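Bug: C-alpha cell stream looks shifted between consecutive jobs. Job 1:
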Amino acid sequence: MNYGYYPGCSLEGISTEYDISMRSLLAALDIAVHEIPDWICCGTLAAPSLSPLLGLATPLWNVLQAKDHGINEVIAPCSECLYHFKRAAQKISDDPKVKMDVAEVLGGQLDELPRSIHPLELLYQPQYETMIKNRLVPERDLADLKAVTYYGCHISRPAAVMEFDEPENPVSMDHLVSWAGVEVLEWKSKVDCCGAHFSLIRPDYIVDLCQKIFAAAVETGADVIVVACPMCHANLDTRQEQIAKQLGVPLDIPVLYFSQVIGYAIGLEVKQLGFEKHIVDPLPLMLEKCHSRKQAALMGVE
C-alpha cells in the first residue's frame, strides 16, 4: 500500500506536536508515508461558505494530487480535514453533474480517487496491536495511568460520511491506548462537542462546552485526556485556567494525542513526541506514573 500523508494547516501550525509524534510513530511501526506534494488547505468552513463548488474542489485538489503521485490511501490526522475530504468524495460520487463541475475546476479526472482515512483507522488492526504490545518498554510502564479518550464530533460522525467506528460510542482509540498499557476508563463525554471553531469568535462558548468535558473527566477519575483532533486538543489544553475558575477546582490535566501516548510507551525519544508544546506539560505525570510502577515492582507490590 502506498500511503499519502496530509498534515493540513493545523499540524504545521498550532499542532506541530501531533505532526511530529504521528510521523515518528508511523516510522516506528514501519509504515512508510509520503507527504502529498503541493497540498493546500482543505478549505475547512471558509471555502464552502464562499461557494459550494469551491468547498468541494479545495479538498479534492489534495486527493487528486495524491492520485497523480500513485498514492492509494491518504492519511489525514486532522478529523476536520478528513471530514471535508470524505464529504467531497461522497458528493461527487452521488452527483455526476457535480463531479463534472469539480473536474472542470481542477482540470483532472476524478475517477478512482484514493480513499481518505484517519490514522486511527489505519492502526486499529490486529498486526499493529501485536507490534505495539511487542515494543512496549518496561521502563515506561503506563499501567498506573488512567485515561479517558475524547473523540469529539468528526472522527466517527456523521456516520454516513465518515464510515468508521461506532458513531455514538467509538472504541478504536480506546483499544489503541490500552495496547500501550494505559488503563482506559469509560465515561460519558467521549463524543461531546468542544466548540471547535467557536474558539475564534465566541471563546465563552468553548469554556462552557469544555467545562462539561473536564467535569466528566474529573468525575471519572482520569489522569489524562487522550485526543485525535488538533482543534479538540487546542480547546482543551489552552482553556483549563478559565474552566477551573468556573468549576471551582484546580485543573492540571494533560491533554495528549494518542500518537504521543503510544510513542512514549514504545520508547520513542521525548523530542519525537513534542511534549514541550503543551500548555499543561504531560511529561512530569508520565514520569511519575512510570516511577511509581517501577517502585511498586521493586517492593513486590502490584
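Job 2, same session, no restart:
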Amino acid sequence: MVGSLLVKAGIALCKALHKTGPQVMGQEIADIVEKHSIGAAVSGLGSAWIPGVGGAAATAAAIGFVWSMYVRINALIGMPFSKNILKSVATAICTNVASYAVAAIAISTVFSLLPGIGSIGASATMAVVAFSITWSAGLVYLKVLTRFAKADVDLNEVDEEDLKAMAQDVLESENVKEMMKQAKEQFKVAKARGDIRKGGSKVTQIRNDRKSGSKKSGCSMASTKTKTRKRKA
C-alpha cells in the first residue's frame, strides 16, 4: 500500500481539478510517485559506490527521476507544462529538499571513500536519501498543483517562474522534515516488500519511457516543420 499521505494529496489534487473518480486517479498518482522513488533508490545504490562523488551523483540521479515523475503525473491529469519547464522546476525542488538530507549525503560521500564496508554503507545511505528526495519532491509538486487549482488559475497561463514561486511557498509553509521522515518510513515498507531489490525493472521501464517520450517529441517537431514547409510551398 502506497503511503496514505501521498494518496490523500493525489485525491485532493484530483478533486481540486474536478476529475472524475478522484480516489482511483489519486491512487494512480501516488503509485507514479512511489515507482519513481523506488527507481531513484536503486540508482542511488549504484551511484554511491563512486569514490568521493557518490552523494552528488545520487542526488543528480534523483533529479532525473523527479523530472520523469512530473512528466508522468502531468500526462495523467492533463497538465500543459513543457518538459523543459518541468526539468527546471524539478531541479529547484530537489535542490531545496536535498538540503534537508545534507548530513546523510555527507556521510555517504565519506563512506564511499572507504573500500569494502564503507562503500556498502554509502550505498545503503544513498538509497534511502534518493528515495526520500524523490518521494518528498513528488508530494511537494502535488501540493503546488493543488494550490493553483484551488485558486482557479488558468494553468495554460502559468510559466516556469510561477511554478517555482509556488513551490517555494509550499516548501516554506509545509513541514519538509516531516515529509522526509514519512518518506523514510515508506522506504522501509518498500524494502520489506522487496521492491528495492526488484527495482531494476522499474528503472529500466522509466528510462525507456524517457527515451520513448524524447523520440515522440522529436517526431512531433519534425512533423510540424514538414507541415510548415508544405504550407509555404
